[in-house]
Amino acid sequence: MPKSKRDRAVTLSKTKKKGREHKENIVNSIREAVEQYNSIYVFSFENMRNLKFKQFREQLKSTSRFFLGSNKVMQVALGRSDSDEIRTGLHKVSKLLRGDAGLCVTNMSKEEAQRIFNEYEDYDFARTGSIATETVELKEGPLDQFTHEMEPFLRKQGMPVRLNKGVVELVGDFVVCEEGKPISPESSRILRLMDMKMATFKLNLICRWSPEDFELYQEGLEGSDIESA
Q1: Coil vs helix vs strand at 69
Q2: pTM over cut 0.70
Q3: Could you say which of 29, 76, 104, 175 would form a disulfide bridge with 41 (CB–CB 3.0 to 4.6 Å)?
Q4: What is its quaternary makeup (predicted)?
């Protein structure tokens, strides 16, 4: 009997990791961009959504370039001290690339960049592990927002439901999520069915650099935070 193709071993050894060449390309791209654009911003992000960020970036492609990825690689590109920075003062920008952060190099005016970043926010469904922004509780009784075909799925999510004459009915009060607590996988699915969006995708400016000046936008970032580390 011929051997089933399903029984073939699959090797992952051919999977290529992003190595030195990839990092060098990023470093070179950032350094080229620094020479081509007027100013640089470090921004942080909350509840990143790749598609929404791609759309935001696309809107500004005529004036700006964005870089996300390894903070260490971006720091190397800019220079981590005054002895290896590629432009005067850029080591201050490098020190602020921490956590969920990115770079924006742009020809936008300072006022326009601040307005666009400060005004931008987009709502989306919360993912598993996100912190609930409010308590959602369903009361005992009919759930008219759900069709009868959804009853088995709702039961699998832990909801005490049954069908009563073709109507989904909750047989007891049920707390979907509690404010300030992590959202479970089941709660995430239920909130999506209820069309309740608890995640806000935001971009927050941290600092701005130009050949003429350097500005911090977030309170609590002291000079020692920049010059140390």
Answers
A1: coil
A2: yes
A3: 104
A4: Associates with the pre-60S ribosomal particle.
